Amino acid sequence: MFLCAAVAQAIDSRQALEKAASLIQQGKLDEADHQAQVALSDPQARAVACSVLGSIRLKQNRLQDGARLLKEAIRLDPRLVGAHLTLAELYSAQGKPELALPLYRHVLTSDPSNEAARVALARSEAANGNYKQSLAVAQPALRALKQSPDGLLVLATDYLKTGDHEAAASLAHDWMQLPDVPPEWSMKFALLLAREGVVPEAIDILEEIKQKGPLTYELAFNLAGAYVLGKHWALALNSYDQALSLNPQALPALRQGAAIAEQQGQLERSLSYWIRAKKIEPEDPEILEGYGRVCLKMDLLEDAEPALTRAAALRPNDASYQYTLAATKVGKKQFETAQGMLEALLKQKPNSAQLQYALGSVLYLQGKLEEAAQHLRESLRLQPDQLAPYYYSALIEREQGRDQEAIRMLQELLRRYPDHAPSCEVLGGLLMNAQRYSEAEGSLENAVRLNPSSVKANYQLGLLLTRMGKKDEAEKRLEFAKSLRSQDEANSRLQLRLLDPDQ
To answer: What pTM value is reported for the model?
Structure first.
């Protein structure tokens, strides 16, 4: 009688646990809980019932109760692989890898073919920065890992962090074969690839998300970032515009779009981004500095100065802000003010080739030639591979009457930078004065070719042609120079504020 009752209870417990497992898969946790409770009173099924209830508590995010039940299951039956695995997952959810890892390893020791434990252990090792160990653990379960987004993320991380970019890139194909992956996961995977230099595949994944639609701000913004990494500048700017059409107040898109447009020489487009950003955050020093810098490049000095003055006041200890403001002062011919600012910056950074050059150029513009030459020489000592300091040094030699040395320096500069129009122009004038007309003609023709709107280059070429007896050509050239005079005045103002030694 008692035997029959025990057998009946065992059958009821087994059926209850089977139902509980099925209900868990269906997401019906309350009903699964009820079935597991039925088996809890059976001493023979109690261990498994505790394991099932622990799994339910994990899914309910009742982690403390879940840990207690799973520990009880393991105490009652240490052979329960599932209980060890679920407890390890629970500890991972609690951010306790030091407790989870031994349990994952125990499961693999008991059952080396357990893919769930192997994947979880690989994921845990990767999360802790142990990428080689993670890859070693994952190797026998590659197929399983490649069948889930989480697994592919683990594999990609392992490959990238161990330097195998080719293997990581190959996972993009596996990713795009997965069915019904949420766009957020695909963006996460693409950004992981992009950040580590696997850019084309990242772009492919993001473009596939875009094709499936709908387009979101996050997708457009991240796709723009991937295009930037791939140096697809036009596509990047278009994507930033798409992102802004979805979120017009997004400062990150405005800032990054402005930076890319400025880098590509699209100054009006860059300025439009900065104007929009400035309306949103009128007191943000980075926005003010970006706006002012682009205004400066566009020779909009009256707009640049107040923005850069405010930015420098907000960031008084940032040398780059003070430097850009000094460049504006040069553009407005406030040379003494610019000199004082640059001298203050040099006290902070005496080994800055850029600052030494900037101060030298400002001193040159004030006619302080010996001091200017000293700072230009120091700039070149600190960083020999520059252009403008050589150019200004040659101008100083010319101003001091050492024309032959100036010619030598300019010829040497043009051997390294053959497309530097100002050097061609100055060299042509010096050669003309030295009556080396043939050489002068070649240099001035190059100057005009490189900068067709330069009044000085065109005028000097016309004057040279007159001296060479080529009257018709000379008259045409001089007339053209006269028509360009107003534009040249603007260019001259522009040149006064160029403080970049690469220009």
So the answer is: 0.74
